[in-house]
Amino acid sequence: MRTKITRALLAGSLAVGIAAAGAAGASATVLFQDKDYKGAVYGADSNSDLRKVGWSKKASSVKNYGYTVTFWTGANYTGNGLRTSSDISDLRKYKNFLNGTWNDRIMSYRRG
Ligand SMILES: [Ca+2]
Predict the structure, then answer these.
(1) Neighbours of 110 (CB within 10 A)
(2) Is the residue at 62 inside a domain?
(3) Domain membership flag for residue 1
(4) Near ion ligand 1, which residues have CB within 5 Å?
(5) Residue 52 pLDDT greater than 60, yes or no
(6) Looking at the domain assignment, is residue 81 inside a domain?
(7) Which helix (H) or strand (E) holds 21?
(8) Domain of 24: which CATH number?
(9) Would you tell me how many other CB atoms lie within 10 Å of the CB of residue 62?
(10) CA atoms within 13 A on the CB side of 25
(11) Which domain does 15 fall in, by range?
(12) Which of 71, 72, 79, 112 has minimal CB crowding within 10 Å?
């Protein structure tokens, strides 16, 4: 069963709640609008098209809680992919094609 923790524009106390859930073994990948796990948050195991939830090309940091996840620049797991099980505090440090970075590039993602 897929678990969608939350999506919200306000980080604040909600981000703290997700961090606590992560410590207990959260199941969802969490996207953060800003680097260093700050700003608005969105959490779900996967999403085939982040445009549908207003989160396309916004993530600047991510937490995967140990799960291997592949992020994609296009909808429906297309385009360039970044496969990782690491938490990434600053997607600017991850190179994408044409000397760009992964900052504000993710449009879909899923485990595996
Ligand atoms: Ca961003």
Answers:
(1) 16
(2) yes
(3) no
(4) 33, 58, 60, 104
(5) yes
(6) yes
(7) helix 12-23
(8) 2.60.20.10
(9) 24
(10) 0
(11) 6-111
(12) 112
Residue 10 domain flag? yes
pLDDT per position as a tens digit, 2-34: 444 444 433 344 444 444 444 444 578 999 999
| Cα–ligand 1 centroid distance for 90 (angstroms) | 10
Provide the pLDDT confidence category of residue 104 given band limits of 50, 70 and 90: very high
Mean pLDDT of the chain: 83
Centroid of ligand 1 to alpha carbon of 88 (angstroms):
13
Q: Give me the number of domains the chain comprises.
A: 1
d(CA 81, CA 111): 12
Q: How far is the CA of 4 from the centre of ligand 1 (A)?
A: 21
Q: Are the C-beta atoms of residues 54 and 69 closer than 8 Å to each other?
A: no
Q: What pTM value is reported for the model? A: 0.76
pLDDT in tens, 78-101: 999 999 999 999 999 999 877 799
